[in-house]
Amino acid sequence: MIRFSALPIRILLLGCLSTGLLAACTDPPELPVTSRPDLARAEFPTLVPIEQILGAPTDAAETDQDRIDRLDARVAGLQARANRLQGSGIDPALRDRLDGDTISD
Predict the structure, then answer these.
(1) SS3 labels along the chain
(2) Could you tell me the CA-to-CA distances from 38 to 26, 34, 41, 43 in Å, in that order?
(3) Within 13 A of 22's CA, how many CA atoms are on the CB side?
(4) Distance from C-alpha of 21 to C-alpha of 42, rounded to nearest angstrom
(5) Alpha-carbon gap, residue 17 to 12, rounded angstroms
(6) Mean pLDDT across the stretch 54-83?
(7) Above 90 in pLDDT, residue 71?
(8) How far is Cα 41 from Cα 43, in angstroms, rounded to an integer?
């Protein structure tokens, strides 16, 4: 029986934890500002209310019912397809021919 030692895993976890703690204690490097002067003077875009972006509300009840009807039709179609696939795929005449001892042309 091979005995598994947890010591390598503990050392690995301790190394990862100490590396993470050391990285968390350092200051981020100062990045140079490379923006162009014309971008610094540019105006911010105008803020628009969300209602204006989304447009007029639609009739939610009708939309939900349409979705329900569409999903019900899809479920019925998939159920019919599953029922067709449940069969063996071999019609009775071919099954009789395959089960027989002789091969006919």
Answers:
(1) CCCCCCHHHHHHHHHHHHHHHHHHHCCCCCCCCCCCHHHHCCCCCCCCCHHHHHCCCCCHHHHHHHHHHHHHHHHHHHHHHHHHHHCCCCCHHHHHHHHCCCCCC
(2) 34, 12, 5, 10
(3) 6
(4) 40
(5) 9
(6) 85
(7) yes
(8) 7
Other beta carbons within 10 Å of 97: 13
Q: Given CA atoms 58, 64, 66, 71 in this order, what sign does their dihedral have?
A: positive
The tokens for 34 are: 């490379």
Share of the chain above pLDDT 70, in %: 85
Average pLDDT on 14-39 reads 82
Residues in the chain: 105
Q: Counting beta carbons within 10 angstroms of the beta carbon of residue 64, is it exposed (0 to 12), middle (13 to 18) or buried (19 or more)?
A: exposed
Supply 74's token pair: 């899809």
Token code pair at residue 105: 């042309």
Question: 85 is written with which tokens?
Answer: 């696939």
